[in-house]
Amino acid sequence: MAAKKTDLRQQLLRAALACSDGDLRKTFSSEELLVAAWMSDRTSWGLRGYEREYPDSNRIHRELDSRGKGNQGIVGSGLLERVRPRTYRLTPKGLAEASTASSEGSEAREKTDRVFEMEIKRIVGHPAFVAWLKDPASPRSFRDAGHFWGVAPGTPPRVVSQRVAGVEETLAATEKLLGEREVDQLGDRHGRVLVDIRDVERAQEFQQALKERFRDDLRILTHGEFP
Predict the structure, then answer these.
(1) What is the pLDDT along the chain (227 residues), one digit of tens a residue?
(2) What DSSP state is assigned to residue 155?
């Protein structure tokens, strides 16, 4: 019996987690993604009539891409990002859902926690955020905000948008992860509290404040594409 639609998405997320090893910076091709999914379930991802021998490239593109109203595809849902044609990366949102979808719970959770540990530490420990907690009028210059986002004049417009959105994705995914685990704190591998829900909420406020304060700068850097 063919896998249900939701199962196919979950399988693809697990394949993306395997291809990236949980590293949000690591990209992978659609071919690598397809083979990883096919290796885990040849019936669902195999070429009709030759399921055991060959994967079906059409199948993966149907799952990746939007096919009209009500079906955004895994990319349109924000779970994977298309970096360039046929090349993708796992987003923080996708990482969190991949961990939830994975049948290999402990391994997937370890990968997820490792990535969120690194990303959250960077956000809540950043000097710009720490300064804002003490003085909401800071930062006063785009240079400091840009350092927080990892952007500067000359950064490609697409990268600017991705990095700003990446902070929001990480915070939203962390919030979702805390909710799914029914906890209000996320610890590191040594058992120390890394972040709690209040930290996440304050960081979301900071992100929104920066976007509003430096909206004109962001629009210039993205050639007017920033909303």
Answers:
(1) 445 555 888 899 989 988 988 788 899 999 999 999 999 999 999 999 999 999 999 989 888 986 555 567 888 888 898 888 999 998 888 887 776 665 555 666 676 777 777 788 889 999 999 999 999 999 999 999 999 999 999 998 988 988 898 899 889 888 888 888 888 887 766 777 778 899 999 999 999 999 999 999 999 999 888 87
(2) S
Which residues face 90 on adjacent strands?
Answer: 80
Closest to 213 (Cα-Cα) out of 116, 120, 156, 148 = 148
CA distances in angstroms from 152 to 73, 83, 147, 167, listed in the order given: 32, 20, 7, 16
- Domain 5-91 CATH class label: mainly alpha
- Boundaries of every domain in the chain: 5-91, 104-221
